[in-house]
Amino acid sequence: MRRRALLQAVPPPIPPQGYVNGPTQECLYVLFDADCELCVRCRTGLMQQPAFVPLVFIAFQSDEAATSLSGIDALEPGEQLLVISG
After folding, report:
1. Which of 31, 62, 68 is nearest to 46 (CA)?
2. From CA 61, how far away is CA 35, in angstroms rounded?
3. Residue 6 confidence class, pLDDT cut points 50, 70, 90
4. How many CB atoms lie within 10 A of CB 39?
5. pTM score above 0.85
6. Contact present, 85 and 31 (Cβ < 8 Å)
7. What are the helix (H) ranges across the chain?
8. What tens digit of pLDDT does each residue of 36-86 get?
């Protein structure tokens, strides 16, 4: 009960200067490792959550990643989570 009262007492964040009508990003591309069970579970969980910006999940091993994100291998997508604004 007390925690709820504390959360309600926090004022909303102040938008940054120049902020007009929300973010301009159409979506976020999330590259994930389709061979990693944790990555797949995270993807599944994130897909079920509401988001301010649509999330588009792409397995970095896919043909789609190879054609639309050429050179992505230099960022070592198998070693880290990559999110690209689009």
Report:
1. 31
2. 9
3. very low
4. 19
5. no
6. no
7. 2-9, 37-47, 63-68
8. 999 999 999 999 988 888 899 999 888 888 888 778 777 777 787 778 886
Q: pLDDT band for position 7 (50/70/90)?
A: very low
Q: Where are the domains of the chain?
A: 25-85
- The CA distance from 25 to 4, in Å, is 32
Our CA dihedral for 6, 12, 85, 72, rounded to 10 degrees, sits at: -30
C-beta atoms surrounding 31 within 10 Å? 23
59 touches 82 (CB < 8 A)? no
